[in-house]
Amino acid sequence: GRPKMEKNGQKHRRRLVLLPCPFQGHINPMLQLGSFLHSKGFSITVIHCNFNSPNPSNQPSFEFIPFQDGLSCNDVSSGDIVRIIQRANVGCKSHLHECLSQIITQRRGGQKDDVACIIHDELMYISQSVANSLKLPSIVFRTTCAATSLARTAIPILKAEGYIPFQDSESQDPVPGLHLLRFKDLPIPRSKTLGGFEQLVVDAYNIGTSSAIVWNTMESLELSLLEQIQQQCQVPVLPVGPVHKFAPASYCSSLLEEDRSCMSWLGKQTKNSVIYVSMGSLAFMDEKELTEMAWGLANSQQPFLWVIRPGSNSDGSDQRIEELPKVLRETFGERGCIVKWAPQKEVLAHSSVGGFLSHCGWNSTLESICEGVPMICRPSFGDQKVNARYLSHVWRVGFELEELERAQIEKAVRKLMVDKEGEAVRENANNLKGKAELCIREGGSSDNSLNRLVDMIMSF
Ligand code: UDX
Question: Which N-terminal residues, if any, form the signal peptide (predicted)?
């Protein structure tokens, strides 16, 4: 492949250092990107926080090096994502410097291979100054959509103009300058008090000396926003999404163990009949919402595959499905399959699955779009709200569920899966899948961007 270089007459691979942000929704796309770059001939070293560390045995061809992230038990148990990210950036700086310089000198000294650059998650912004001090080129990887980044960067401005703090965080009024979004769709953290969020936005969107922005989105979804961002930006903006489509199929980067038993259950269901329900790796439900969901799914009469992640119960009770009322379990019987964690990409690609009730994390959104699966959107916080708004009002491949209440869930599932009312959304999902395929195929926009990325790295 192209990246093999002759140096002193020796065949010589170039090495890339990847630094993900320590959450499932960020680790997945980073390792998928790494897996693509590995297939192009690069060697991959993943340096990662101790917190949420990826399992090295999932990618035997990568090298994994943990560094001290400086996170305390209190930081981790706070569940406060903004705090964890900020503390990790502050706390890891010197260890990161040490870790990176060791990798560089070790390689150069040993003549094994040299390090071309570091690719870091936008939220691990500290990497940029560390790379700079070591004269290593750096590339930013963004794992949420372009619409989210525009909305996030608007937040400090909205604050300066007096719109924030909100009078009413559920306001349906359009946000000035972001016409498609209502105030309730702004990508703010779960806590609602902005706290350190504003500073995080400033730090993460300062691209400083980065050489490029690599983005897990597609032109078919966000061409005009990407063009707008490119106009304001000195370095190439490269939409390479969805990266999972460029990684080998066997590839897995799950932090939790996948329960594959649901695949044989799916095999027994009829085409497009199953509603898949998952709220990703971070969203919570309380016990009442869990019960409403169970009744709503049961009453919809559609078969369902439901992921109830351990610890996802917000009251800490970790309610299990065996504890739901017996009458309810009898109502759905064999029609429901419940697992703790699913092989989601495979599930969405399965012909039995006809709909996805989702929290609309960006990875789930891309995975669903690529398989043409229409969605019921139930965003919880942050970028999920922007994604839900775009899914329902721009791409029109889903609609929002206002309330986690049994009658509404039943109605939404029937609309999405069977009723005439949902026909347009089902058709749009199918069409959007076709447009996504055009981006991914050889010569498509994402494929071209990936080639540009490879060329750029080779030029370092
Ligand atoms: C987080 C944020 O919440 C999200 O909004 C942001 O866009 C990325 O970071 P998360 O909530 O975990 O991510 O959602 P999502 O982005 O959808 O990522 C979840 C990943 O876990 C997906 O790649 C999905 O395929 C995988 N998954 C989920 C499984 O493999 N099995 C499951 O049962 C559920």
Answer: none
The residue whose CA has the least distance to atom 18 of ligand 1 is 25
Taking the CA of residue 342 as reference, the ligand 1 atom at the shortest distance is 33
Amino acid at 44: I
Q: Token digits for 253?
A: 């980067």
State the number of CA atoms in the 13 A half-sphere of 26 facing the CB: 23
Please name the residues in contact with 347: beta carbons below 8 A apart, sequence gap of 6 or more: 262, 263, 266, 276, 305, 353
Neighbours of 42 (CB within 10 A): 22
CA of 102 from ligand 1 middle (Å) equals: 33
Within its chain, how far is the Cα of 178 from the centroid? Answer: 22
pLDDT digits over 386-405, tens only?
999 999 999 999 999 999 99
The alpha carbon of 23 and the centre of ligand 1 are apart by a number of angstroms equal to 9
pLDDT 10s digits, 206-234: 988 999 999 999 999 999 999 999 999 99
Residues with CB under 6 A from ligand 1: 23-26, 28, 143-144, 254, 278, 280-283, 307, 341-342, 344-345, 361-364, 367, 382-384
Instruction: Output the CA 348–ligand 1 centroid distance in Å.
Output: 13
Query: CB under 8 Å to 458, separation ≥6 — which residues?
Result: 2, 3, 5, 14, 116
Q: Which atom from ligand 1 is nearest to the alpha carbon of 244?
A: 23
Quote the pTM value.
Answer: 0.94
CA distance 9 to 25: 42
